[in-house]
Amino acid sequence: MSSICFRSASVKVEMFGVFILRESLKRSSFVRQAHPAVRGTTRRSFACSSSSRRQLNEPLSGAKFPRVGGISTMMRLPHQTDTIGLDACYVGVPLDIGTSYRSGTRLGPRQIRYESFVLGPCNYTGAAPFESLQVADIGDVTLNLYDLKKSVEMIREQYATIVANGCKPLTLGGDHTLTYPILQAIKEKYGPVGLVHIDAHDDVADTMLGEKVTHGTPFRRAAEEGCLDPKRVIQIGLRGSNYSPPNDLYEYQKEMGFQVVPAHRCWHKSMEPLMEKVRNMMGDGPVYLSFDIDSIDPGLAPGTGTPEIAGLTTVQALEIVRGCKGLNLVGADLVEVSPPYDPMGTTALIGANLLFEMLCVLPGVKYYEMEDFI
User: Are 114 and 71 in contact (CB under 8 A)?
Assistant: First the structure.
């Protein structure tokens, strides 16, 4: 495979098809090779005036280059080592040392990128993100996989740089611990944010096995630090057994003012009416979207660390993400994909599709009017 050439020696080169993001994130120093299999493609934006017109990135087309080849980025978009000039970026966090049961989510970003090769740039909703926003894959953040607390600090620092440039991060996880430092970084720029959290678990435990920072505690830690606007937090899809007695269930959420929609309230229903309520609840303020793949039924998405039966369907997942259109989204993540538990790759494929859908509902995305022929 061809490689990317860089002017900066501090950037790691491609390793097994996945790029590692160095701490020189602030530097604008990359140079693309001419071959489209390496650099993706660009198109001219129709949304800009002639005085401010810019070339917008778009995924490498499967109609022009085989889907099995090309650069190993999300949707085979161009790879960039910083966020300067980007409206949104895909970024991986290959973390699984915050898990409490099955590991393997460190392999999630790579598998999601691979499954994304099948995606095209157009959406049947009429969304045209690559005619509207400058998007690239900036690789994976640097981590210390021997030290969770150090990794959390490294994630926060690198995301602070990402969002400081005005770029909206779409994160490929990685276990759910990663959302805590991302929200810390988001707060530095936007203040407390609303949260749309889709998950089988509430992730508001105070501790797990005596530890304050795990994949089961991110939203309690974030709330304690003022990263969340508690009156604009909703958790959808919660289910399974619990360690708390029934009268204590959701006690923390009640205390904080979080809204909870358990999975059994979603069964056999469209999510569109719920998402209308969510949009009214969130208003015009900044919102973060966090989607745990274990919210989906394990019969559809088995590749995850803590599966729970009787979850959401993929149709409901799409309705939820598409229902975020109109929100002031400042970032989103797709977490807990564990490829070793799904040799068919279906879970990562679902994750890749949902990450594309998240891009499509970011502010500023142009929509074409689609005719209904039925």
Answer: no
Residue 178: HSE in the Cβ half-sphere, 13 Å Cα cutoff: 38
Give the separation between CA 288 and CA 269, rounded to whole angstroms: 24
Phi, psi of 346 (to 5 degrees): -65, -40
| Residue 216: predicted pLDDT | 96
Tell which residue, 5, 85, 87, 82, has the closest CA to residue 39: 5
Q: With CA atoms as reference, report the closest residue to 137 among 352, 350, 292.
A: 352
Q: Indicate the number of domains in the chain.
A: 1
Residue 64 tokens read as 């022009």
* The dihedral sign for the CA sequence 18, 22, 27, 29: negative
Domain with 298 in it: what CATH number? Answer: 3.40.800.10
In a domain, 73, yes or no: yes
Q: Are 72 and 148 in contact (CB under 8 A)?
A: no
Q: Give me the residues of the chain with pLDDT under 50, please.
A: 1-38, 44-52
In a domain, 242, yes or no: yes
